[in-house]
UniProtKB/TrEMBL annotation:
Name listed for the protein in its UniProt record: EAL domain-containing response regulator
Domain EAL: 24-280
Full-length numbering of the shown residues: 119 to 403 of 403
Signal peptide: none
Assigned keywords, A-Z: Phosphoprotein
Source superkingdom: Bacteria
């Protein structure tokens, strides 16, 4: 195991580093040490069907539990990992942690139907065939069908390196994996570039979703992306849904899936299992 799952946090799970310390700015050796010492772990956020509230899948999100500086979120180290050449190690560590567990979870909660597992991948992994081989092997060993695995690439990553993106995404697609365009609406993709890439899902960026309840413009953008997804045969997912009014709007316009604190936060395995039990009581059988 690449992660020490017993070392997942309890005290600082919601917090930031201790208040008396100056802000910690991690460097490459800190991150390498975190990988070696298994201080990274994964939390899982459910994705639900807008129409029913029933779980559709889980997204794996990495965390760093630093012994001195507390919980560090990925916004503070993914960029560093990319620059330091450690991002593939993180991707593989996340998969190594998530896949066998997800295989078991899918069996335990089979009554809820086929679940998907979403994994975030980085632009810097584009064009590295070794990574794909490793992913395919890990997947085969865990017994999870590639069609249940969704790789999320942010719009900016896809558009910064469109040729490399197409190569990586096509390779993943050939192996049967699903692909998702993350944080859509924040970059500058042209519609043409979008339809050329083999995505099966578009995730509407949280910035639009967060302001949907109060902004007519945000609602217009969300509706437009949902219609676009439908026309292109892609699923649309709204990320960062925090209020019931926004959920009602998403139902009204026929957005397929949603994620956000309204439904569930990213959770440790233990908390996620409790949440899944509640889902089973509501929707199972
Ligand atoms: P993302 O993939 O777009 O993930 C969604 C982010 O929004 C997550 O932040 C999640 O905790 C947060 N979120 C979900 N629902 C809500 C909500 O209702 N309200 C608010 N305010 N926030 C919500 P997180 O976990 O901090 O991750 C940030 C970004 O870091 C991710 O954005 C993803 O791009 C990247 N990331 C996370 N894990 C990995 C990983 O394993 N590998 C790579 N390459 N990137 C990762
Ligand atoms: Mg994502
Ligand atoms: Mg996103
Ligand atoms: Mg994001």
């Amino acid at each position: 195991l690449l992660f020490d799952t017993n070392a997942t946090p309890s005290k600082m799970a919601l917090g930031f580093g201790p208040a008396h310390l100056p802000a910690f700015k991690p460097a490459a050796p800190d991150l390498q040490a975190a990988l070696d010492q298994k201080h990274l772990f994964v939390v899982y956020q459910p994705k639900i069907h807008c129409a029913t509230g029933r779980v559709s899948g889980l997204e794996a999100l990495v965390r760093w539990q630093h012994p001195d500086h507390g919980l560090i979120t990925p916004d503070r180290f993914i960029c560093l990992a990319e620059e330091a050449g450690l991002i593939d190690s993180i991707t593989l560590a996340v998969l190594h942690d998530a896949l066998p567990w997800f295989a078991q979870l899918s069996t335990d909660y089979g009554g809820l139907g086929e679940l998907t597992l979403s994994i975030n991948i980085s632009a810097r992994s584009l064009g590295r065939p070794e990574l794909i081989d490793a992913i395919v092997n890990l997947c085969a060993r865990s017994g999870v069908s590639p069609s249940r695995l969704i790789f999320e690439l942010t719009e900016t990553a896809a558009m910064d390196e469109p040729v490399a993106a197409l190569t990586l995404l096509t390779r993943l697609r050939v192996h049967g994996f699903m692909l998702s365009l993350d944080d859509f609406g924040t970059g500058y993709s042209s519609m043409l570039q979008l339809v050329r890439l083999p995505f099966s899902e578009i995730k509407i960026d949280r910035s639009f979703v967060a302001s949907a309840a109060t902004s007519q413009e945000s609602r217009a953008v969300i509706r437009c992306i949902t219609d676009l997804g439908r026309s292109l045969g892609m699923k649309t997912t709204a990320e960062g849904v925090e209020d019931a009014a926004t959920h009602a709007y998403l139902q009204e316009i026929g957005c397929d899936l949603a994620q956000g604190y309204l439904f569930a936060r990213p959770m440790t395995r233990q908390l996620l299992t409790n949440w899944m039990d509640q889902q089973l009581a509501r929707f199972g059988h």
